[in-house]
Amino acid sequence: MAITYEQALASVLPVVRTQGVHEVPLPDVVGEILARDVIADRNIPPFPRAAMDGFAVVWTGKETEGTYRVAGTVNPGTVWSGNAAEGDCVKIMTGAMVPAPFNTVIQVEHSEIDFGGSVRFRNAAKSGQNIAREGEDVLKGTVLLPSGTFLSAHHVATLASVGQWEVPVYQRPSVAILATGSELVEPWEGASGPMIRNGNAHFLLAALKELGFRDVRYLGIIPDDRETMMAKIREGLTSEFLLISGGVSVGDVDIVPDCLAACGVRKILHKIAVKPGKPIFAGESPGGGIVVGLPGNPVAVMVHFPMFIRPLLLKATGATEYLPKPILLPLAEDTVNKSGGKKFSIARLEKKGAETRVVEIPSHGSGDFISASRAEGVFEIPMGTSHLSAGETVRFYPIWGNFLSHEG
Ligand code: AMP
Ligand code: MG
Fold it and tell me: How far is CA 14 from the centre of its chain?
């Protein structure tokens, strides 16, 4: 029996090797994977920081009784060096360092300034209020971002805050792409009769670009001919990853696994109990690289780039979290799974009232890439489940589309 999708990933992931480390400047880190722990070089906040515009006092609990002399003003980025007598306050701005011995800030909205420049407070104060204590977020020496973090824009402020301008990140593996099939022509060529245009290779190139991979070679279309295929495979095996579309199924012209074996590729798996993508092949090249053969059906390629290949690429790039993360959401309508095996079914999300629901997109199967191009992801129908009812919770994987741009 074919192994499960999870077993398939578990059998290839240990073979994946990480690359070396290099430094990239801070503006270029988005999409890279951090190669060293980032440590706080100071306490954060680094000094007692006023969190409001107002007046700093030494707390007594009697702030509403009597008036205070204002001994000076403290602006952000300055150290106040004036003198204050007992019972004085200082005017202070958000972000400024609260000078000793002051320990409480009363916001300007709760204050009244007299003509003579003294101030009285309308509201009782709590000791320590409106001051972010030194080190209250993290102490110097704390790990802020662990090695292996997949960096996005919201990590950049943290890197900047510790002065990390040259950021150590993992090098990415090189990738080669090969499309097999005597029926294929390129998008810029005319297609007639039994010929179809090569969508898979261009999808893979675009998906790699989206993931930030730059060392990518496209080796073109090869017909289902053993000699040509072996020559191209040998060329592709010089990359750390070789991704092949088509030719891994059981037809007479599905010669990719044989050709790979003849080129010294060690088979790790061939066939997974999942739809689409059942005939997937994975192996290890003589040089220790990874070879993945995807069935030519375009939906299988579109699903298994994010679900199967992306985890391998991320692990090769040093990521510690590389498995796709599902979101648990209710299904909008009943669905059936005739195969009985695990299925990744294409779907969109729909917001209905307070609820976001998973809407399955009707499809003619794994050749129907037009339906898949309207989807935002896939949801899982587990192995052995032949029917799911509307309202049942499913695991949705948001693998396509720009989820950040979604409005309710
Ligand atoms: P195969 O896995 O080679 O048997 O191909 C399965 C199906 O996918 C066939 O209908 C192919 O014509 C189609 N197909 C194969 N390669 C591609 C490709 N690069 N782009 C679009 N469709 C393809
Ligand atoms: Mg083929």
Answer: 21
Residue 356 phi/psi, 5° resolution? -105, 125
Q: What is the pLDDT of residues 167-198, one digit of tens each?
A: 999 999 999 999 999 999 999 999 999 999 99
For residue 336, the Cα-to-chain-centroid distance in whole angstroms is 31
From the number of C-beta atoms within 10 Å of its C-beta (0-12, 13-18, 19+), residue 386 rates as exposed
Q: So what's the pLDDT on residue 233?
A: 98
Q: Are 352 and 277 in contact (CB under 8 A)?
A: no
Q: Which of 180, 184, 249 to mutate to test the pocket of ligand 1 (most atoms within 8 A of CB)?
A: 184
Q: Is the CB of 297 under 6 A from ligand 1?
A: yes
Alpha-carbon gap, residue 259 to 222, rounded angstroms: 13
Distance CA 79, CA 389 (A): 65
- The arithmetic mean of pLDDT across residues 147-168, rounded, is 97
Res. 218: pLDDT tops 60: yes
The Cα–Cα gap between 163 and 165 comes to: 6
Return phi, psi of residue 274, to 5°. Answer: -150, 145
pLDDT tens across 287-315, in order? 999 999 999 999 999 999 999 999 999 99
Measured distance CA(314)–CA(325) in Å, rounded: 14
Strand partners, 324: none
**Residue 36 corresponds to which tokens in the numbers above?**
């060293």
Q: Show Cβ contacts of residue 259 under 8 Å, excluding neighbours closer than 6 positions.
A: 226, 229, 230, 233
Total number of residues shown for the chain = 408
Which residue has 């009782």 as its token pair? Answer: 124
pLDDT at 379 over 80: yes
Q: Whose CA is nearest to atom 14 of ligand 1?
A: 296
> Dihedral sign, CA of 75, 80, 82, 87?
positive
Task: Report CA(148)–ligand 1 centroid distance (Å).
Answer: 36
Pocket test for ligand 1, best of 221, 225, 259, 297 (most atoms within 8 A of CB): 297
Q: Which two tokens stand for residue 301?
A: 């390629």
